[in-house]
Amino acid sequence: MSDENYMTPSGFEALKDELHQLMYVERPKVVEVVSWAAGNGDRSENGDYIYGKKRLREIDRRVHYLTKRIETAIIVDSTKQKNLKQIFFGATVTYVREDESEHVVTLVSVDEADMKKKKISWQSPMAKALLKAKIGDQREVHTPSGIETIEILDIHYGD
After folding, report:
1. Nearest residue to 93 via CA among 156, 11, 6, 158
2. What residue ranges define each of the domains in the chain, with the CATH number in brackets?
3. Residue 112: exposed, middle, or buried by beta-carbon count in 10 A (0-12, 13-18, 19+)?
4. SS3 for 110?
5. Cα Rg of the chain (Å, integer)
6. pLDDT of res. 2
């Protein structure tokens, strides 16, 4: 797996927003509950205290992860790509499968991948098969049911 942390501008902003929400909204509320619960005596049977401490650990882990992802992000704005005839990060690709069904996917970061929105990680098997392909190219993709050949119909960058 590649060490590059490519990210779209919107994906980068989403991570920053989540970090801000955790640090300045959720964490202070949980700290307040834990402080209140700690003052209630026996912590071993204090559900608010036990749950609050667990939630703080979860928040702190996520904050650490988000901070690292934000620090190492390489922001790629696909709207600024011009005249690219090959598939790279940020491309929206239309391809046809062997069963003649057409599919459209956009290659995004691991953090942005969402199949419901037709966004796939640029490090996924499908994306790896698509990378550097041109319109008209055929590529083999390893699927759970075996190897399938797809053909690239269209490539575009930006909205």
Report:
1. 156
2. 5-75 (1.10.287.180), 78-156 (3.10.50.30)
3. buried
4. coil
5. 22
6. 56
d(CA 141, CA 132): 14
Strand boundaries in the chain, DSSP class E: 5-7, 73-75, 92-96, 102-108, 119-121, 138-143, 146-156
Query: What confidence tier does 155 reach under pLDDT thresholds 50, 70, 90?
Result: very high
Q: What is the pTM of this model?
A: 0.81
Alpha carbons within 13 angstroms on the beta-carbon side of residue 2 total 14
| 96 pLDDT above the threshold of 60 | yes
Tokens of 53: 């401490």
Place of tokens 């956009």: 106
Coil, helix or strand at residue 102: strand
